[in-house]
Amino acid sequence: MQEKFIARCFELAKLGETNAFPNPIVGAVIVHNEKVIGEGFHRICGKEHAEVNAVNSVIAKYPKNHKEILAESEIYVSLEPCSHTGKTPPCTELIKKYRFKKLCFAISDPNPDLDQNRLKAFKAIHNNGTEIVYPEELSLETKNNANFINRIFFHLISLKNKQKNETRNPSWINIKIASYADCNMITKDEDQWITNSESRKDVHRLRSTHDILITGINSIKNDNSKLNIRFSAEELNLADIKTPEIVILKSKQNFTENEKKNLNIFQYHHPQEYKIEDVAKANSLKSVLEELCKNSPQRIMVEAGPKLAESFLKQDLFNEITHYMSLKGCDSLYNVKNIQAHVFFQNNKIIQILDNILKHHQNFSNHKLKIIHKELINSKCGETPDLKIVISKSL
Ligand SMILES: NC(=O)c1ccc[n+]([C@@H]2O[C@H](COP(=O)([O-])OP(=O)(O)OC[C@H]3O[C@@H](n4cnc5c(N)ncnc54)[C@H](OP(=O)(O)O)[C@@H]3O)[C@@H](O)[C@H]2O)c1
Q: What is the pLDDT of residues 180-195, one digit of tens each?
């Protein structure tokens, strides 16, 4: 039962993926007699935490007797409740105040700011009569999911711990790749799209959950992409949507006046929503990235063709690859399983897949790439399923 409530916390947490950053995404559920009576999630960095929103939802529902109800309830949270005063008061105080029957959380918070207060806070909750279920008591799958949904937050914290004197802002770079099953990234003449409509919708969600979208001048010229978000927040399972800042990289080429007038990117975005960066002038891709992150940490998504994607990979400027592989032409699930096995069982094969995409063999062998998420994306429109593979090198 508790795993089911924690799974609901994960769903709620993901609703806040647009604006909780650089805070973690967190969901909380309040359960009374095995029934969910309140839910909350962390929506905006610096604003109410998930636990507070969940408690408030119960207060709104039971304005007169919420205290008694909360004291008879269990609270489930996808991440350890905070025990320090940051931009908001400690959630452990809230849990203590309402004397919940039980607290269960899915993963510990590695934030070093909590180290001083944690023991005292949890002891106080326990002494107040609340049973505490720690992550160690939950299934491996639940712990893995808790780790997966907040991998960007955990990555930023580990960088913060490792590089205490580093003045540069950390970033998270996710390279999005769409390909056919043979790993070709260029759309065939007979197709309008490589991947199915649900994968393309998922890409819109990715855009909304990143702060910067980097693309290359060729993709803009060849595809005439709009690079906007054409779904509602509800359709993308998000509380809010936002268009990331678009950065178009070029070095030798330029946009002609005619292209500036006619290309979709310039029609669909205000001039403050995009910029064109000359990588040759900036000296390197790395210096462009440093400049982009100079004021705050940024989640960067690279949505470009093979040439630019290859540069990011070769220069080791990435944390993750989100690969949507179309299974068109694979005539049965047997083939799908083969692809998964092909990718999964031999570490080198992951690299080989990237090699296929990028037509390169050297330089990747030092990466410890790992598949951290695989799912079949079925389309609602009768198209063939796609395989979504998230490959990470930092976990
Ligand atoms: N399947 C997918 O996921 C996907 C996604 C996007 C696009 N595409 C396809 O990819 C095709 C374009 O591919 P592409 O690889 O030629 O274009 P691209 O990756 O969009 O852009 C490459 C251009 O970026 C500029 N650039 C600046 N710094 C660079 C660096 N360090 N390394 C590499 N490039 C740098 C260069 O501009 P200069 O020429 O000015 O030097 C280069 O020509 C499009 O036709 C599109 O259909 C596929």
A: 877 778 899 999 999 9
